[in-house]
Amino acid sequence: MENRIKIERAILNITQDELAKRIGVSRQTINSIEANRYVPSTVLALKLSGEFGKPVNDFFKLSNDD
């Protein structure tokens, strides 16, 4: 799975820590998602969607390996 979390954070001008606090996870979780080491749950993806004000499909997409 590919994601644009880092880009979306930059648009909002917030750090990994700020985003993590807003959605109730650790900074390490955000880092792992951005590095494609962790695929978030549906609940977490929907929380991110709410923070970015965009549909989940705007910042997550399946890669050819999925």
TrEMBL record:
The keyword Magnesium does not apply. Gene3D superfamilies: lambda repressor-like DNA-binding domains. The keyword DNA-binding applies. Keywords: DNA-binding. Residues 5-59 form the HTH cro/C1-type domain. InterPro entries: Cro/C1-type_HTH (IPR001387), Lambda_DNA-bd_dom_sf (IPR010982). This is Helix-turn-helix transcriptional regulator. It comes from Microcosmobacter mediterraneus.
